[in-house]
Amino acid sequence: MEKWVLAIGYDKEKFNEAQRESLKYGILIRMAPDLSAAAAWLAKQNNFLLAVLFSDALDFLPPLKILRSLTKAPILVMRHRYDGAEKVAAIEAGADEYIQWPDTIPEGVASCRALIRRYTELNRQDDEQLNILSRGSIFISVDYHKVFINTQEVVFPRREFDLFYLVASNPGRVFTREQLYEKIWIGDYLPAENSLHSCLRRIRRKLEAAGAPCTIQNTRGVGYCFLQEEP
């Protein structure tokens, strides 16, 4: 079985040396320059045994919380300067370990190996892949019913979440009102005429408040579709 590690924000110049050291133990490294790229990898590859977040950003906790919702694998945070209070905050945000950036690559690989061994031998429950949808700065974790926009969690109750996920999963597709009622209200009952409009209005307000680069557009006489602005 291949052992994959997802390295987020790692120095490209050190990659070859780190990969050579890791390969001694059958560990392969996948590079992701940022959280968006990491989410894309996690959405299509479910065999990562570890995610390593390399960060010296002042506020790395919001990205860490998002990363925790996107993978069941352990997360290791490496910082150039160790801070005890920051370690506690990182663990509470979802990290499994927090260490100071090692002086040598073999030290860093050893820490990774320890977490991989603990995960595979003791704590790993299953290989089920989490269902993740990423749209630029928007991350939707279907399994946990969580939405993150610009690194901040935005709370969507069930109907709003289901409606937003449906249209965001099909950018550009126009859904008729009847289709949305059928898919979101599942035919349990016929909702009031303004139920859909009210739900969409609340979603739009939350997207706007979070600065989301997208909108749910009303196609007059037809229905609604999700549109995302070009970066």
Automatic annotation (TrEMBL):
DNA-binding region located at which positions? Answer: 130-228
Pfam families given for it? Trans_reg_C
State the Gene3D superfamilies in the record: Winged helix-like DNA-binding domain superfamily/Winged helix DNA-binding domain
Q: Where is the OmpR/PhoB-type domain?
A: 130-228
Report the CDD domains cross-referenced here.
trans_reg_C (cd00383)
The protein here is known as: Transcriptional regulatory protein, C-terminal domain protein
**Gene Ontology molecular functions:** phosphorelay response regulator activity; transcription cis-regulatory region binding
Annotated keywords: DNA-binding, Phosphoprotein, Transcription, Transcription regulation, Two-component regulatory system
Lineage at the top is: Bacteria, Bacillati, Bacillota, Clostridia, Lachnospirales
Q: Which organism is it from?
A: [Clostridium] asparagiforme DSM 15981
GO biological process: one example: regulation of DNA-templated transcription
Q: Report one GO cellular component.
A: cytosol
